[in-house]
Amino acid sequence: MTSIRHNNVISTLDAGLHVLATFSAADTASAIELSNSGYDAVVFEMEHKPWDINALRDSFQYLLSRRQVFEAGSLAPAVTPLVRIPANGAEKAQWHAKQALDLGAFGIIWPHISTVEEARNAVAACRYPSLPGTPRYEPAGLRGDGPHAATRYWGISNIEYYARADVWPLAPDGDILVGLMIEDQLGIRNLPDILDQVPGIGLILIGEGDMSQELGVPRQYEHPRVLECKRQILDICNERGIAVGHPHVTAENVKQVLDDGYRFLMSAPVRTYPGLHKARELTGRD
């Protein structure tokens, strides 16, 4: 198996480094701007935006820069496209993951994961089926077979895609990232069991907006109750070597975010990119 990665987010996390990312609507203008932004990844936001599979397909294409591909000498896109799907964990949403992956997404962000079963479904939906007894069989794959658009986007054959389209770190050479959002007290209570019982989770992203709503302090991200919940998630994940994402990184808080131990840093995709530039400076990327 070749060691060449197509997913630069996984390469960066696997090396113990920081990923610089942002949320974006799925539209061509945003994708073109992001293609030369300096971000490592974009999470196309389809939980609170419409599920528009055609807009997502076009955004993937406009995110590619032919010059970047040529100069890098690699098929890996400079800005790795991930997708946050609409449905909460309890709603299963296997078809959303399947459609996004079939277009060429390199990972799925699953909102509102609160139980072991929801986490197991999230990972399983991103894997192709195999027979019992196959190495790394669990969580047993549920993804349907229709990779032709994805293989074109990745620039590889179907056979190569099948070899790479498994979830990391369960499959060491896998190029699919499964990110789970922990957004409530139930999710925090179950997080140790989720990480201990469900292999294949590559990222935990804190949903501090919904978390603050549940705590009765909506959007007060620095409220002590919110900070305590975030600290619990960080501690649980750090004990198990799982990267944690912060969804609201700014030029003002990025130093604290880094000091706290976050490794997937999401800042707002405004034209001046103040959060991104400060993060690049503090992580030694400039």
Q: Give the overall form.
A: globular
Rg, Å, rounded? 18 Å
Q: Which structural category fits the helices and strands?
A: alpha/beta
**Biggest sheet character:** 8 strands, parallel, barrel
Helix content estimate: 40-55%
What is the CATH T-level topology? TIM Barrel
Task: Please specify the SSE layout and strand pairing.
Blueprint: H1 8-14, E1 19-24, H2 28-35, E2 41-45, H3 53-63, H4 66-72, E3 80-84, H5 94-103, E4 107-110, H6 116-125, H7 148-154, H8 158-164, E5 167-168, E6 176-182, H9 185-197, E7 203-206, H10 208-214, H11 224-240, E8 243-249, H12 254-260, E9 264-267, H13 274-282
Parallel strand pairs: 1-2, 1-9, 2-3, 3-4, 4-6, 5-6, 6-7, 7-8, 8-9
Helix pairs in contact: 2-3, 6-9, 9-11
Structural account:
The protein is α/β, with parallel strands linked by helices. It has a single domain (8-282), classed as Alpha-Beta Barrel (TIM Barrel), CATH 3.20.20.60. Helices cover 42% and strands 15% of the residues. The protein is built from 13 helices and nine strands. α2 (28-35) packs parallel to α3 (53-63), α6 crosses α9 and α9 packs parallel to α11. The protein is globular, with a radius of gyration of 18 Å.
Short description:
The protein is of the alpha/beta class and 286 residues long. The chain is built from 13 helices and nine strands.
